[in-house]
Amino acid sequence: MNAKPKTLILRTAGINREGDLIRAFELAGAETLTVHLHALIDDPSPLETCDILGLPGGFSYGDDIAAGRILANRIRHRLLPAIRGFVAAGKPVIGICNGFQVLVKTGLLPGFEEDADASPQRVTLTDNALPRFVNKWVELDVQSETRCIWTRGIERIECPIAHGEGRFVAPPQVLDRLETNGQVALRYATNPNGSDRDIAGICDPTGLVFGLMPHPEDNIHPTHHTAWTTGLDTTATSGLRLFENAVQYAAERVAQPASNA
Amino acid sequence: MSAIDTENNVATRVYRIEVHPAEVADDPVGRSVLHEARELHLAEALREVRSARLYLIETTLSETDIDQVARELLADPVNQRPVIGSTEPADGAQLVEVHYLPGVMDPVAMSTHDAIVEMLGPRAAGCEVRTGYRYDMIGAGRDEAERIAGAMLANPVVQSVSFEPFAPEAFVKGTPYELNLTHVPIRELDDEGLMKMSREAHLFLSLEEMRCIRDYYRDADRMPTDVELETLAQTWSEHCVHKTLKSRISYTEGERRFSDAGDTGNAGSDIDWSSRPNHTVNDDGTVTIDNLLKSTIAAATFELTSDGVDWCISVFEDNAGVIAFDGTDAVTFKVETHNHPSAIEPYGGAATGIGGCIRDTMGTGLAAKPIANTDVFCVADPQWDRAKLPKGVLHPRRVLKQVVAGVRDYGNRMGIPTVNGAVWFDDRYLGNPLVFAGSVGLIPRDMAFGEVQPGDRIIVLGGRTGRDGIHGATFSSAELTDTHADEFSHAVQIGNAITEKTCLDVILQARDHASGCLYNAITDCGAGGFSSAVGEMGEKIGAYVELEKAPLKYEGLSYTEIWISEAQERMVLSVPPEKVAAVTALAEAEGVEWCDLGHFGTDDAELVLTYENTEVGRLSMKFLHEGIPQPTRQATWAGQSKIGNRKSEILDAPIDRLLVKLLSHPNIASKHWIVRQYDHEVQGGSVVKPLAGPNGDGPGDAAVLRPKLDSDRGVALSVGLCTAFGDVDPYWMTLASIDEAVRNAVCVGADPSKIAILDNFCWPSCDAPENLGSLVRAAEACYDGAKAFRTPFISGKDSLNNQFTTESGETIQIPPTLLISAMGIVHDTARCVTMDAKAAGNYLFQVGVTTNQLGGSHLQLVTGQGSTDVPRVDLAKAPAQLATVAKLIAEGLVASAHDCSDGGMLVAAAEMAFAGGLGVDLDLTAVPREGELTDLAACYAETPTRVLVEVTAEHYDAVVKALQGTGVPFGELGQFNDSTRLTARGNNGPLVDASLDDLRNAWLKPLDW
User: Fold this and answer.
1) What is the topology classification, in CATH, of domain B248-256+261-626?
2) CA distance A79 to B533
């Protein structure tokens, strides 16, 4: 019997959607291991034994100074090489909401090839155009040209956003490069926060590291969708398929370890 | 404090760092300030606002270090620009800067400090951070800038405003405290002296209570210490002990007088006093009630539990009520008020209100996991004329915006979905707004009780103790006046949700530890701080407390201040000595501060307080908890109606115009502006959301969530609030509220035989017999309603001094306000229904009769046409009627259901139609009635117990048969259709032909802030 791929869920002070993410990975067929940042800094070995890394949503350190900023700095100073090694080993990473903010502020996204050493921050997630928290459902269009492994075979996802600092901002040349390079994974059908070019999620050049503001982990059950009581078939736009893609990818990688050198 | 660190001889200095948007155009905060200032007409000449974040860092670090901090930590490299020092105002702008006052909780400053230390290592230790905001007001003069700052940006209770760059040379520091044991000569005081002391020391105790304390110390032959007196005042405060609700009451009913001659509507409203528990009807017609709470609200629960209601696990005993959820788990519910702190500092007051209520959940049994929040606000007209605002009062629009922001920032950060609530507008809330915050928790059934054991260590987890919140318990029990903001600024608290979240993370790990729960009992530090928490936990066995052990936010706190501080985010655990190491290891792994404050259990079950080995207080737990005198309070009820005294707008509009008017009434209008700011999805259990329909443009009746993600069993949460009926008779108001709360829960699919309810009384001063009389009537209705619906009260809280005295001496009493919150079990969430209409061709039924009683209705609120004829719940029929609706829903026969309450049937039907994007055609003559019914009442009466249900053609026969079989009155009002209009015809032909878009907009716009 094949062992299930294992997802490492990273949490710290103020992370609060780890339960939602754990449930999504479990439904998608993975095991999960939840580790506190302090413990992972002390002992990064779970990054070697786990197959997928998940950075859940929440308000790490209260989102004080700026959303994800303090956690990103801590990772930058204490954990960045280990996470880079994780990605280099061909293992998928997802950052949702606060996790996306952290991936962007550590420079892991967009993670251009030349950024590997200095890890500069190229893009940002900042105050919504109407600068306050908003929770509403959005429609997300998967970009057909994306190299993201998480969104393979998916056209549309519907799920809630829940953020105050979700506006994706980048200089025009960076936006152009993301587009040409297939790194724009998701766009909002209707832009809820003023994001540049309606961008809701991006991936790194390998397609393994994926960050998005909306919460696909909150549309994985038949009674999650806003319109489920109308009898609408909500499985068509479920967020679960994202997690299934990664779990499948990880399972295949584990089955053929030699190909990931 | 010297500016030189003498040990290393390095100068400390304060650096000022400004963080500006890199592009002037990319400044949402500045734009939002400009927008609000324009909305409020504060500065017509203001053209532009530019915002910047400010950090002040007092440190020995070099400028190079600070430059690195600014670039790598404080400013975003993509869209922000840091400046060390001060920039010149932009385009001749008037500068406004807002900074927290020293000592006020500033979570960003704390996080920034920690991040700097992590980044730069030990050489950064000892740095201190303060934060603020800068606004460059372009086009505004100094006067306008002051006006904007005062009305929108700063609250002098917690913040200071500066009109030039604020750059102090050094931060204000506390000075070390030296023990100064204070004794209070109370034994010699006469009545006048006692009351003077009660007032001046902010004890807020009555003469009788002061006398009782004096006599205790005369008997003991010693003087009390100051901390003993404070402990008694906190423990005996209305807030902590509910002395009014628990007192003996003598109730007298006067002759009824109605303001509307010839109105006989309530002639039969007399309560049957004959067979009520612990009520004695005296020969003179007065009624003596021994302990009102126990004889009404609690009595109903205990009668129900001995009569087959077997799912209550813990009621009235703990920090929250607990009922069975399934075979292994229980759900808890607590609703608190935080009115007075919110009146003075709405943001901090509401945030710490919800934060405190969440801690109640964490302090229930051996700690429940918070799974949902609720919130209800009562405020004055947000359009209130700014020029007519009494001194000491914040504008209602500002109050509402900030209480919402407070609940939002706390609840969202904690990762708890805020799923249900309401807002009620009445100008009598002007000086004394109400903020209700509720918290629901999930707990294993075998963890529902804890018990302190002698020898257990008193372990405190969480935030540090500071001067914030001192006298909160006694202050909340007093009446507000125009000078309270100055006198009680120290009672106001700012919260730090992340401290509470990390505390929760640790507690749940300690609770679920592999070796079993690591502690014997837990409670939160709420009102009264350590004094209440430790005092209550040690009630039976005593406690020995070493006050100097508490970690402090800053130096200078006296032992008394430590003992009564209401600093937020602290939990007290009773830990066996051998398990302390395991608890503290968990805390340290998560970066949660802890201290060992002493132990439970003393020889004579006394409370012993020490500071650095000196005894500073010693009190008998018996006197502390049982010594409070129980006077008999006078209550009268004259049956006077207050309707007719209110602001009114006479309007002789036809029925269709009234529909628009009602949908726009702020009580009824969409609260999406609030709902969307709350995370109602987090934790992944959302089933029925606060806004219903595919587009989220319908008002859901209740929220449903699945607390266990591997189960389809759910919890429904709803409220009932019918304040307007209380102006005629709080008895009928209360029954209507219970009916509404139960009905809302039923409408989404809750099992009406498994609904628990909570009471939150907010009343004006009950020293006035007429106010206590109206409170008695509400309490009696709680007994009658709970018994009839078989919905036990499991928890409650009261706030009984809600009135505001203006500078000129005028007292504005709030209307008696009773919030009923309901929590019901949903057996199968896949069977839940929402209120949005589902399909053209489906039928719309009204279940329950409509009467002509329009008293206290929203129709009356918008037309001002008065009547004291309020609708009444028929307790003989209502429970069965709602049970029938519940059964139809459970059997899957109902496509949608919507409670018919605020605004009446036509408002409810319109909401269903536009939420579902369907037209509807109604026949008002089909509205169920007893006798004659006017078209106006058919549309807009607020008769309780009515539900609108949508039924498909497929289930039509089954529904009709079921309704006929149970004898429940119902009528087929019409069908939904593919049009975009709502049409209705009455006794004399067509009455309404309205565009759904217009109706939806009327509902959406008023509070679309």
Assistant:
1) Phosphoribosyl-aminoimidazole Synthetase; Chain A, domain 2 (3.90.650)
2) 41
